[in-house]
Amino acid sequence: MAQMVSLAASPREKTGKGAARQARFAKQVPAVIYGHGRPAQSLLVDALLLEQALSRVDPESTLIELTVDGKKTRALIREIQRHPIRPDIIHVDFYEIHSGEKITLKVPVHLVGTADGVRNGGGVLDQVTREVEIEVLPEHIPDRVELDVTALKIGDSLHVRDLTIANAAILTGADLTIAVVVPPRAEEVAAPTPEAAAEVAEPELIRKVREDEEGEEGEGAAPTEGKAPKAEEKPKGKKEE
Asked: Is 46 helix (H, G, I), strand (E, B) or coil?
């Protein structure tokens, strides 16, 4: 059964970017509630209480008991907008729900157990899909869906069709892969640096011969300091005047 969180909200009289900016400065989060043909109502929610409430649950599958002007209503969070840089919540959309009315929402998939291919074959369990969409009555909303992966060997996989959710219809495609056990990844060998490659390419013997030749040239060469400059060559075919 889905968890329920209680929140208090107050009607928001002023709308627009300026009013929303002032509300956030006052540590309040602009919000809106809609559903069942009712006109959308603008609200304000305490930012700290909202963050504390949502930090303990999965917002998409949590029922919200929202109190506005003393009147309680149940709702789901349809959208949470956060600041592009900071983790602050800057707007929330609530969707009002009624008992006896089926709703569509996403619930997280939680893998249970240690796969045989991981335990005995050194494989890696890769969870490809982390949530599925379902249609369900509010009183039957699960907080999560569990899937046992214990029997999976290397190369085996589980799909949406392997899920069982009581009192709910699964809307996500049945063939979608949820988890797979892949073979162990081979260790990558670091490529040699250009300096190391040069050392390997030039054998020790050749390098030693080069060093010896350079030494001989240095011993037999005449010093350049004090050496007389060469006489200028006369142009050919021209007589001296």
From this structure: strand
Looking at residue 160, the DSSP 8-state letter turns out to be G
Spatial distance between the Cα atoms of 214 and 205, rounded to a whole number of angstroms: 14
Cα separation of 160 and 128, whole Å? 11
What pTM did the predictor assign? Answer: 0.64
> DSSP label at 165?
-
- Residue 15 contacts residue 2 (beta carbons within 8 Å): no
- The pLDDT tens digits along the chain (241 residues) read 667 889 999 988 877 788 888 888 888 899 999 987 778 889 999 999 998 888 878 887 788 999 988 889 889 888 999 988 888 889 999 999 887 888 898 999 999 999 999 999 999 999 999 999 999 998 898 888 999 999 999 999 999 999 999 999 999 999 999 999 999 876 545 556 666 555 555 555 555 555 555 555 554 444 444 444 444 444 454 444 4
80 class by beta-carbon count within 10 Å (0-12 exposed, 13-18 middle, 19+ buried): middle
Identity (one letter) of the amino acid at 68?
V
> Which tokens sit at 42?
């603008």
The token pair that represents 154 in the structure block: 């290397």
The 8-class DSSP code of residue 59 comes to: G
Q: What are phi and psi of 118, to 5 degrees?
A: -85, -45
Q: Are strands 28-35 and 145-148 parallel, antiparallel or unpaired?
A: unpaired
Residue with token string 């046992």: 148
Q: Residue 37 contacts by C-beta under 8 Å, 6 or more apart in sequence?
A: none
